[in-house]
Amino acid sequence: MLDRIFGTRRTRQFQRILRNGKVTLLCLVLTIVVLRGNLGAGKFGTPEQDFKEIRETFYQYRGKRAEPRRVLEELQTTTEQTASSATNNYAEFDINKLFVDEEEDVKKNPNEPYSIGPKISDWDEQRGEWLKQNPSFSNFLNANKPRVLLVTGSSPKPCENPVGDHYLLKSIKNKIDYCRVHGIEIFYNMALLDAEMAGFWAKLPLIRKLLLSHPEVEFLWWMDSDAMFTDMAFEVPWERYKDKNLVLHGWNEMVYDQKNWIGLNTGSFLLRNCQWSLDLLDAWAPMGPKGKVRDEAGKILTRELKDRPVFEADDQSAMVWLLASQKDRWASKVYLENHYYLHGYWGILVDRYEEMIASYHPGLGDHRWPLVTHFVGCKPCGKFGDYPVERCLKQMDRAFNFGDNQILQMYGFTHKSLASRRVKRTRNDSSNPLEVKDELGLLHPAYKVTKISSS
Amino acid sequence: MGQEGFTAQKRGSSTLPTSTAPNGGSRSGRSLLRGGGGGNRQIHKTLNNIKITILCGLVTILVLRGTIGFGSLVSDNDLENQAIIEETNRILAEIRSDKDPDDPEDNQDQSVINLNDTYSLGAKISNWDEERSLWLSRNQDFPNMVNGKARILLVTGSPPNPCDNAIGDHYLLKSIKNKIDYCRIHGIEIVYNMAHLDKELAGYWAKLPLIRRLMLSHPEVEWIWWMDSDALFTDMVFEIPLSKYKDHNMVIHGYPDLLFNQKSWIALNTGSFLFRNCQWSLDLLDEWAPMGPKGPVREEAGKILTANLKGRPAFEADDQSALIYLLITKTEWMKKVFVENSYFLHGYWDGLVDRYEEMMEKYHPGLGDERWPFVTHFVGCKPCGSYGDYPVQRCLSSMERAFNFADNQVLKLYGFRHRGLLSPKIKRIRNETVTPLENVDQFDIRHSTQGSSN
């Protein structure tokens, strides 16, 4: 076609030039694109950013909203959200959209050393005076039995794991049962009192606050939410601890000699309400504040304690460290109990329940019939534990039923098996119910008798 | 050189005449190659095309890698997480299903109840009052009055299997914490039931055999207080004025007008009521139970109740309608029943939850009535099931608000309160002090209720 205008040779040259030009342009474009992809082009951005922008544009067109904004007025939130989610179906609802934080966290001065509370030095005197003035709030329920407050707790937000809350519920029911039989009060905590002492350290400010707010309580019994009572008939031997202020499950050699980080367990322990305990809490707390302090403390603990893995400081390791390094100050008032399972590691206990039922009876509290089965490492409330999920959950069910059977036998029932939720009768209904005695004597036990003078 | 190559591809046919022309060394060299015939040229052409295609492909990949990167590839860690989540879901489904692993004999036990048989809660007892007072006189260590107040046992419960969704279990947990707090402050013991004591009386009827069983096993208990799992205490100071009921054996929230004149099915509420531990109560339970057994008995009874009670929808017999029907047909029972509405022994939530801020501003705990409700009862919300009668958002935010409203009253002793009624976080309202006992004397609820005997 061009032949006719320019002549053949000219045409060919022209076409050659065109071709060359096309190729040059193509190569140029490719070079620019590759360079932009690898190095970026300043304010023109990288292709990755383009990709994201394109994606977001598409999403906008689809009608997806941005993150819900924090609203200060609750009423506004309610009306806004009702419009968009008026569903009656619980499965469709995202619970995390429910919570509204009206205020910012209080910012602490990072240079200020942590203090668990203002120093109190005369707590024994203050408390003694108060008890004298309030005889109806006696710290002893009868000659042998101190007033005990069992403290446990969990997060105010739902568990990440969908079954976590169900196991927390079963765990608190189990504690309610034991405490009702033994005349112990319960405090279930769901509030984080001190944002710096979050996680396993949260119990420290809580314990201090409860000791100071309940002077009538003689012993505070901290128990983790993953620990269950499996011996409903065992009463803690309070007279054994009349000169002690802290009772933990553990072994003297493992704590004082070996400095083993699992030489004791802070998942279930007793603390007397006195000045010594306040001092202990003051000495225990400094490794707790989250952030640099806790991380650095963790390194010290891993170095100083036997077999401790590398992670931030936890309250248990800190306690081992405290007792081992300041033995002279604390050891005389600490009792490391191992004659019964004030804390019983679940791994060695749960498979033997049937054997225990066949060979022994409740009331022993030790390896034959453990007082507490503690599911360390299972973490049913979180997403990932240290053990297989199935083993943990099935064994928790078994431990729960093992304990529940002892409660149900009071009323003439028992679980059909340790794995079964269903119950069956163990004795027929009688027209003389008061003549039937429950085998374990849990309905009206002697240790529950309250003999204090009322005002 | 490349140009010639391109030229050769693009101008296959037109170069033919020039190939034989003897001008340009390289060109002729190339022409000689080309001169091998059309087929050769085509092969070369194809080869060149392929080369260019591969080249372009490589360049495209390079460019794309530079732009988007490898972000879409799943890492090992994610795969592991995925596996764990799947396993959890499988186990969860197994746990939630009602199937029990060791339950072969269950099917054989099911016997059909004859419609003519009257169901019985247990062996008939006729002398419970005498038996009980004899026991109390022999067991002075377990008196029925503690610190001048009658001994109360609070009974509540929930099904033994996990809720249909996790939110339900979370609110059951908050609900029991709320009850634990109230009962600790007021010296009341709690029984949390998770067992079906009687297969026939399942569902809302399950409370009947349970109450009977607890009465008979705990003669030291003077009053048994049943409370639903969806009812929350919202007045931590208020105490039930038991002296008001010294001539009655049952205390239940309701309206006499709705009960006798309108015969409404919601005239009374069995979500929160008290039963005295006595023969009369055992007899009432025996009279109440027959409409309960599941199956044809409950269905038929449901029809009778719908026919006789105003506003009742058609469904199987429930304990509340059955009690109302019993009381309006056999009015002799009413002598000992106290229908209470001067305080909210049961407070229907819908009219209360929006007013909490107003209440905090104008009133104070201890009133128990519409100014500061004693109990807020979330009827119809059913958080343990899949569907409620109300929008989920409304139910859950109201339950959260009621819980925090009550929790503020508990935390007051410790110097804290929630940041807002929908906030799980707390803030200080009182500084720490070296003389904490002053605060204890001032703020501990027990010190204000102690001494006021009922």
UniProtKB/TrEMBL annotation, chain A:
<protein>
    <recommendedName>
        <fullName>xyloglucan 6-xylosyltransferase</fullName>
        <ecNumber>2.4.2.39</ecNumber>
    </recommendedName>
</protein>
<keyword id="KW-0808">Transferase</keyword>
<dbReference type="GO" id="GO:0035252">
    <property type="term" value="F:UDP-xylosyltransferase activity"/>
</dbReference>
<dbReference type="GO" id="GO:0048767">
    <property type="term" value="P:root hair elongation"/>
</dbReference>
<keyword id="KW-0812">Transmembrane</keyword>
<keyword id="KW-0333">Golgi apparatus</keyword>
<keyword id="KW-0472">Membrane</keyword>
<dbReference type="GO" id="GO:0009969">
    <property type="term" value="P:xyloglucan biosynthetic process"/>
</dbReference>
<dbReference type="GO" id="GO:0000139">
    <property type="term" value="C:Golgi membrane"/>
</dbReference>
<dbReference type="GO" id="GO:0016758">
    <property type="term" value="F:hexosyltransferase activity"/>
</dbReference>
<keyword id="KW-0325">Glycoprotein</keyword>
<keyword id="KW-1133">Transmembrane helix</keyword>
<dbReference type="InterPro" id="IPR029044">
    <property type="entry name" value="Nucleotide-diphossugar_trans"/>
</dbReference>
<dbReference type="GO" id="GO:0033843">
    <property type="term" value="F:xyloglucan 6-xylosyltransferase activity"/>
</dbReference>
<dbReference type="InterPro" id="IPR008630">
    <property type="entry name" value="Glyco_trans_34"/>
</dbReference>
<dbReference type="GO" id="GO:0005802">
    <property type="term" value="C:trans-Golgi network"/>
</dbReference>
<keyword id="KW-0328">Glycosyltransferase</keyword>
<keyword id="KW-0735">Signal-anchor</keyword>
<comment type="similarity">
    <text>Belongs to the glycosyltransferase 34 family.</text>
</comment>
<dbReference type="Pfam" id="PF05637">
    <property type="entry name" value="Glyco_transf_34"/>
</dbReference>
<dbReference type="GO" id="GO:0005768">
    <property type="term" value="C:endosome"/>
</dbReference>
From TrEMBL, chain B:
<keyword id="KW-1133">Transmembrane helix</keyword>
<keyword id="KW-0812">Transmembrane</keyword>
<keyword id="KW-0325">Glycoprotein</keyword>
<dbReference type="GO" id="GO:0000139">
    <property type="term" value="C:Golgi membrane"/>
</dbReference>
<keyword id="KW-0735">Signal-anchor</keyword>
<dbReference type="GO" id="GO:0009969">
    <property type="term" value="P:xyloglucan biosynthetic process"/>
</dbReference>
<dbReference type="GO" id="GO:0033843">
    <property type="term" value="F:xyloglucan 6-xylosyltransferase activity"/>
</dbReference>
<dbReference type="InterPro" id="IPR029044">
    <property type="entry name" value="Nucleotide-diphossugar_trans"/>
</dbReference>
<keyword id="KW-0333">Golgi apparatus</keyword>
<keyword id="KW-0808">Transferase</keyword>
<keyword id="KW-0472">Membrane</keyword>
<feature type="compositionally biased region" description="Low complexity">
    <location>
        <begin position="24"/>
        <end position="33"/>
    </location>
</feature>
<dbReference type="GO" id="GO:0005768">
    <property type="term" value="C:endosome"/>
</dbReference>
<dbReference type="GO" id="GO:0005802">
    <property type="term" value="C:trans-Golgi network"/>
</dbReference>
<keyword id="KW-0328">Glycosyltransferase</keyword>
<dbReference type="GO" id="GO:0016758">
    <property type="term" value="F:hexosyltransferase activity"/>
</dbReference>
<dbReference type="Pfam" id="PF05637">
    <property type="entry name" value="Glyco_transf_34"/>
</dbReference>
<feature type="compositionally biased region" description="Polar residues">
    <location>
        <begin position="10"/>
        <end position="23"/>
    </location>
</feature>
<protein>
    <recommendedName>
        <fullName>xyloglucan 6-xylosyltransferase</fullName>
        <ecNumber>2.4.2.39</ecNumber>
    </recommendedName>
</protein>
<feature type="region of interest" description="Disordered">
    <location>
        <begin position="1"/>
        <end position="38"/>
    </location>
</feature>
<comment type="similarity">
    <text>Belongs to the glycosyltransferase 34 family.</text>
</comment>
<dbReference type="InterPro" id="IPR008630">
    <property type="entry name" value="Glyco_trans_34"/>
</dbReference>
